[in-house]
Amino acid sequence: MTKNTIGSLFFLAFSAFYFYSVFGIKKMPGAQFEVMTAQTFPFYVGISGIVISIILLIISFVEKEKIVLSLTYIRSLDLKTTFYFIVLMLFYGFIMKPLGFVIATIIFLTVGFLILKEKNIKKILIISISVSVGFYLLLNNALGVYIDSGELINSLLGAKS
């Protein structure tokens, strides 16, 4: 098998599992009449992933030039950085509820840039903060998707959970 075929099959399996998992997301009461629910974006991401992976799979079978998966290619991959990002994503999932979306996303993006060996701390912080706050405002205010501010912010502001 070629590396494109293996990659396409892996991406197809991942996308199918992701799409299947979408139906486990609980809807808020009365959300059946809403245009956007918690399932909407993940549903379309899953469908897109399945379609793209099927297209890539077809292309890998049609392709005349065979690029065989070799040990040299596997050794050239930066698996250490990939592992660091997987650990970082797990950490991001664990800190989302206590710290909230904005603070957790700032930490995630900052550490991600540092893993990718970005040296300019000022640029890292400006991008991390602006992307986090921008997405929060877009989702919360423009699209009306509720995003919890986190247990830390709620306790500092005296809000009840």
Q: Could you spell the SSE succession in H and E letters?
A: HHHHHHH
- Helix percent band: over 70%
What's the assembly state of these chains?
single chain
The residue ranges in which pLDDT falls below 50 over 5 or more consecutive positions are none
Give the end-to-end Cα distance, rounded to a whole number of Å.
Answer: 52 Å
Number of strands: 0
Mean pLDDT: 86
**Tally of alpha and pi helices:** 7
Largest sheet: none
- The outline comes out as globular
Q: How much strand content do the residues show?
A: under 5%
Radius of gyration: 20 Å
Q: Indicate the structural class.
A: mainly alpha
Report a brief summary of the structure.
This protein has 7 helices and no strands.
Per-chain topology:
Blueprint lengths: L2 H20 L17 H23 L8 H6 L2 H21 L1 H15 L5 H22 L8 H7 L4
Helix pairs in contact: 1-2, 4-5, 5-6
Key terms for this structure?
mainly alpha; 71% helix
Task: Please explain how this structure is put together.
With 161 residues, this protein is mainly alpha-helical. The chain is built from seven helices and no strands. The termini are far apart.
